[in-house]
Amino acid sequence: MSIRHGLLALLEHGPRYGSQLRTEFESRTGATWPLNVGQVYTTLSRLERDGMVAQDGEDDAGHALYAITEVGRSELRSWFERPVDRTSPPRDELAIKLAMAVGAPGVDIRAVIQAQRHATLKAMQDYTRLKAQALVAVESGDGSGDEGRDDVAWLLVLEQLIFQTEAEARWLDHSESRLARLSAAAARRAVDAPSAPAAPAASPAPGAPTDPADLAGGTASRTARTASTARSARR
Predict the structure, then answer these.
(1) Where are the alpha helices (DSSP H) in the chain?
(2) Which pTM does this prediction carry?
(3) Alpha-carbon distance 93 to 113, whole Å?
(4) How far apart are CA 129 and CA 132, in angstroms?
(5) What average pLDDT score do residues 123-145 get?
(6) Distance between CA 11 and CA 36 in Å, rounded?
């Protein structure tokens, strides 16, 4: 997430000091991506180094104010105009976790998926509840001023989070179905695979059954175990 561009956007409304920028950033985004003051001042230092902001005196309480420069405004306009680059997607912990769980010894990947689905649906319910509250705030206000602007921004962020969790839930369903189909296909291939050539008959070992009925019983037992394994794999 581009904190530097977020700060530039806030500074376009006028000079701000660090903790004021943090408060306004979190108000606009509903504290979805909380900042600490250290991050804000580190980013401001880099923006100042790059000529995008400049110190602009102090307020009555002695806070150092920062103002956006023309270079900063140009960068901000360019940021609004260009699409977000999706060629280098951010690391997604859930995708990495499922990728690592595939084939990991002792890991029940279906349990991993079910646990995540529960958390995802819970998050979706929470976001939906917050959206209802945000809608009331937006529809009861006139949408003007800082407060109205923050309400609309928070509503848009919430709707993005809802769409995101819906997509995640669909992906989890798809992953579970995909793994089940692959498991069933592997089981079918194992059942349909041709048997290995029979080894030459050897002399019975001392104590081994020699009655044909006993041998047939052993073969039937192995066949039953194979079928049971295949059925378990399909499940």
Answers:
(1) 3-11, 18-29, 37-49, 70-81, 93-101, 109-140, 145-192, 212-234
(2) 0.71
(3) 13
(4) 5
(5) 89
(6) 17
